[in-house]
Amino acid sequence: MNNLAIKDLLLKMADDALIIGHRNSEWTGIGPILEEDLAFSSMAQDKIGHAQALYSILHETFGEADADTLAFKREEKDFKCCQFVEQPIGEYDFSIVRHFLFDHAELIRYDMLTLSSFQQLAQLARKVKGEIKYHVMHADIFVKKLSLGTEESKARMQSSLNYAWHMALGIFEKGEFEGELASENIFAGEEELKKRWLEKITPILEAAGLKVPLTEDSKIVYGGRKGFHSEYLKPLLDEMCEVVRSDEATAEW
Amino acid sequence: MAEVLNIKAEEVWAILENVKDPEIPVISVVEMGMITGIQISDSPNIACITMTPTFVGCPAIDLIKKSIREEVLKLGFDKVEVMVDFETKWTSDRMKPEAKEKLEKFGLAPPTILNDEELTEVQLNKVRCPHCHSTDTTLRSAFGSTLCRAIRFCFSCQQGFEQFKPI
Q1: Distance of residue B166 Cα from the nearest chain A Cα, in angstroms
Q2: What local confidence, expressed as pLDDT, does residue B21 receive?
Q3: Distance from first CA to last CA of chain B, Å, rounded?
Q4: Phi then psi for B115, rounded to 5 degrees?
């Protein structure tokens, strides 16, 4: 089995989950209604749990540093998350649109991975899938409610969708090992994932009365998978790592 | 030469009934279906327990592992290892019937049966209110006070309640 290819896949998935988890947690205490505050807080906890499980495979099976070190003690350029997850939470419409676009991709990715020849990941995927179904269900409900709500809510949803679109497509930035991952039946690949994602989300967006933006390849926001990030990742990492950095020698978790 | 204790797996299963889920203190980890294997070796006296978490990000996992270790050590083992893996997937169907009864008495509606099928409207509805037992209830939010709970509302007794969500 190609270790480099698997490690690359695990790391980008873990980093996506950690960073979107951190962003989700920024709604804790300020959600528009109590239930939404709880929803984003719960999803944050789920995502960070998924990140931890993926980092743990890297640690236990591939000899990388432990989960806390991977999460809190790496440089910005070592993170492989897509730039989409780094973006600030913005207003609620953007957070809901990102949650919808990102979680549908996550659910399909994990669904594909249940068939992975890398057993440890296939087992985790079968478990995680059941949790993300609830995230997707939540996203679908709110996309529909807000898009079919008032003129203002509909306009906000369309505008956030337009703004998010080319960043969302950056989720599917190809890695170095697409060929190896596919030929060894570890993961069918980003292109296949993108295809299934478009098939899945298009009818939901249309039923909500939203226009699916036209894709211009040159506008897709790539770079994250190679360690090139937006200006928003560094401040996020600084905040997330503030406690551990303040007392690296003796901090205990 | 260390003494051979001959502790049986049944004794380990029995003592694990004392380890409760800290978020639902009326149910043991055994009733919850979290324990997936117990292996015992006699020389040296080691118990190896495998468990699977209800939710991947469950914050109680470390505490549960510690409680399991402390409880099983009481049987006299030299060492108790607790391993967490996902080889057996935890689903709410693993919860024993007696656990579901206890949940309802605790005020938490038990999860509906999934049978490894896709989550549908049916499993999200037809949930019985733990207070008045009416099934005229609705899902208010799939997310509640802990990862495993959803918030529901009962039209019959006009009370909000929580459900252990089917997963």
Answers
A1: 9
A2: 87
A3: 48
A4: 50, 40
> Strand B159-164 relative to strand B108-109: parallel, antiparallel, unpaired?
parallel
Question: Which pairs from A184-192 meet CB under 8 Å and 24+ separation?
Answer: A184/A1, A184/A2, A184/A5, A184/A117, A185/A115, A185/A116, A185/A117, A186/A1, A186/A2, A186/A5, A186/A6, A186/A9, A186/A116, A186/A117, A186/A118, A186/A121, A187/A9, A187/A112, A187/A113, A187/A116, A188/A112, A192/A112
Give the containing element (helix H, strand E) for B36: strand B35-41
Domains of chain B as residue ranges with CATH: 9-84 (3.30.300.130), 105-164 (no CATH)
Sheet with B79-84, strands from edge to edge, namely: B35-41, B46-51, B79-84
**Domains of chain A in sequence order:** 3-246 (1.20.1260.10)
As averages over each run of 10 residues, the pLDDT of chain B (167 residues) reads: 73 96 91 95 90 92 95 94 93 93 94 78 79 93 90 95 92
Residue B162 CA to residue A131 CA, distance in Å, equals 18
Answer for the pair A187, A124: CB distance below 8 angstroms, yes or no: no
CB pairs under 8 A between A and B: 68
Find the chain A residues whose C-beta atoms sit closer than 8 A to any C-beta of B: 35, 38-39, 41-43, 45-50, 52-53, 120, 123-124, 126-128, 130-131, 133-134, 137-138
B145 in contact with A at a CB cutoff of 8 Å? Answer: yes
Let me know how many helices (H) and strands (E) chain B has, helices first: 4, 9
Subunit contact A41:B85, Cβ cutoff 8 A:
no
The overall longest dimension of chain B from CA atoms, in Å, is 67
